[in-house]
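Continuing the batch. This is chain 6 of the set; chains 1 through 5 are on the previous pages. Same settings as before, nothing changed between runs. Recording input and output for traceability.
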Amino acid sequence: MSLNHAQSTAVAHRDGPCMVLAGPGSGKTLTIAKRIEYLITRYKVRPEEILVITFTKCAAREMKERFRQVMGTAGMPVTFGTFHGIYYGILKWAYRLDQSNLLTDEEKYALIRQEALKLEWEELAQAEDERDYLKELAAEIGNIKNNCYDIEAYESVRYGEQRFRRLYHSYEGEKKRLRKIDFEDMLVMCRSLFLKRPDILGRWQEKFRYILVDEFQDVNQAQYDVVRMLAAPRNNLFVVGDDDQSVYGFRGAKPGIMMEFAKDYPEAKKVLLDVNYRSAAHIVEGALRVIAHNEERYDKKIRAKKDKGETIHVQEVRDPMEEGRYVFGQIREYQKAGISYKEMAVLYRTAIDARALSEVLSERQVPFVMKEKITSLYDHFIGMDIMSYLHLSQGHYERKYFLRVANRPKRYISRDSMREGKVSYESLRNFYCDKDWMMDRIDQWEWDMKMLKNQAPYAAIQYIRKGIGYDEFLREYAAGKGISEEDLLTVLEEIQQNSREYQTIEEWFVHVENYKEMLEKQKAKGGREAADGDGVMLMTMHGAKGLEYEVVFVIEGNEGSTPYKKAKTKEALEEERRLFYVAMTRAKSKLIISYVKEKNGKDVSPSRFVEELLLV
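Output for chain 6:
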């Protein structure tokens, strides 16, 4: 395993701080493993004095295994762990904590929910998806701790300053009463312990005399503060990262930490791993062209070890369903050319962007693995409403279908009129036989269903929307619940667009059931087991970080998708560009980026990142 000049320079660094800027595919894991070997064999550092910190348990295992391959010996007492794992170990030792003191994510959400309800938090009751709402609330609470913000000075834009502060204190107080700590507490409690007890800090400083940190660009303020205290006074702190791959702003990570390191340690050695061993030269050059538009970054000259290879292909398609068919066609071509499914990945900004593609691949029986769960459109209340109308149109008179849409839009039909297991328009007329105006409504409903019976799904949904008045119902529903009308109409539009290629309603029912069944199977498989199979990987750009594939498709390369529509500030847009850079640099041989011209019935523009790529 020979090293290039930059890698050798990093490995041979002896004492004091060192920052290694490691671009994608630059061999950073090997560099860290060789660095540990060098410390032990050349500089005679005792293995138990070396601490290696990564971000995930999986990365820690991989690093340990790579080190074992380099050293050729197992059982070497070097400590490998995650930030949370290491800091929790310190807290366990100091406070005699055990597993029972840790809040699981589910317990954390339940506790936040309990305290929010005590404070009459109205949005919680109105949330379309309560779990997602609690997850976002928990993320903001965690962000305060990750960034070491003072809650009394913190202003929550989303939830309101005073109200959010009350919830924060209420949650923290209840947690303390239960003697529980959450994920972020491991960081802030460790920081607090070291600040208050220099004697305890001194013991851990003696234990770990050399500290190596991987993926340093993902460090948040609390993690950084603790690792700096641990490394003092020797400051044998060897950090490896790439500011261009800092994509966890929502967790408090920021590329500025790498800039901060250079200010905090002006004497630090700086090494750039400037050779990309992963990607063809065209891909490396294209990715650098895009990321160069960011202002807050270290300027890097990176060259590819591989030949030019194929140029990056940018494809324009009409809409997400056509994009799905295009990607399917390309996957089949590459598979016939000898590239296995598991060597291909499709990346996107959010899981929602993959819905049309997952339907196409499911329909055409291409095996695929989803790293993140995609929620089925047909399980959304709008999907269930539409399917209920269509079932009724086909004479499927189950009570659940009548109940679901009787008053969507309002017909003033009561539940009492639908007590039987099987409901019919005749049974409804019998119930309301003394009310002529209700008879008219029931007649109209039955007539509407007859109108739908032989229509193609797309035309039938259009009739439900405009003829029956479902669009108007959604507008009233959104106003009453205080939620976005546009978001609801977008879901409806997507369902309608996805039905376009089916000729009959029954044919579409079969497709929807097969699709839902496939999603259930994907969920049951779980990430690790599924990843071992031969399937195309479908995942978000965040989920793809650290991975590599022969062929990478980046779909929905549009404004609003990437950069994401909520990214408004300069900082947020730069993070979105870094995320796109991460997606591009997963590709080894072939990179295909597609964008749509129309989505959910509206014209959309190509992403500015696609335009930056094409500007030569």
